[in-house]
Fold:
Amino acid sequence: MSSHVHKDYHGAKLGMWLFLFTEVLLFGGLFVLYSVFLSKYPQEFHDAGKDLNVIIGTLNTVVLLVSSYFIALAISFIQRGDKQKAILFTWLTMAMALFFLVNKFFEWKAKFGHGIYPTSPHLAELPHGENIFFGLYYVMTGLHGIHVIIGMTVMGFMIHFLKKDAIRQDDFVKLENAGLYWHIVDLVWIFLFPLFYLVL
Amino acid sequence: MSEHNGHVLSVKLLTYILAVLLLLTFITVAATRVDFGYFKVVVALALATTKSLFVILFFMHLKYENRFIKFIVFMCFLILAIFIGMTFLDVAYR
Structure:
């Protein structure tokens, strides 16, 4: 009794899900904003959306889906006691997240090069609807990008915990919760991608 | 201690799920290259929702969680749907 450390597996997971609900509402609010402006300025959104690169968008979708697969594999391996493979796949998840951000960097850089960035004079000359489109584009992909950076940091801690045996075959809820967070980041992109890159 | 080991997903199942998700992504890209107006948004969102279901049920293990977690996740998305639906009613009939 005295040396027993109380751990509540179900409580930890429930807490994580509750946090994820706040994330769903955070992005949900922005999706509502996007939808309302899309119905208000369909033509402007159509014209502005043509400027986004479908190939980079598709590549980043594939990258995030594969990274989600990697973290799910890492959890599956630690549950079977394969520590080395769990560490390897958590590293690979982080690498895919970095790859995503590098693509995003070049995408934004090209946009900036064309004079499309928040408060740019070129954007102010465009029709109001297009200005709103790029405003939403930067806020939503930017907020998503911040989540990717946080996710990478979390994965770094997970690798540390795995190495120190703070995450192991009989106690892996930290890695599961990190995985849940990462999947939500992927889920948000699953909706961002068609809305910004494809439907317009 | 192993009481919480839960359900271990096999590499094979996870790989199948990834394959389905990639396939759905390419279908979404191909389908939206054809111009069929507003219907395109419906198709793209339906496919995105299908992809989300695969991610939530398998990658996020929801299929293997207890009823309570399943219920609150359902409630969360129901509330989101009401939030989006009400906003649209407001915008459409203002």
In short: Chain B touches chain A through 48 residues (CB under 8 Å).
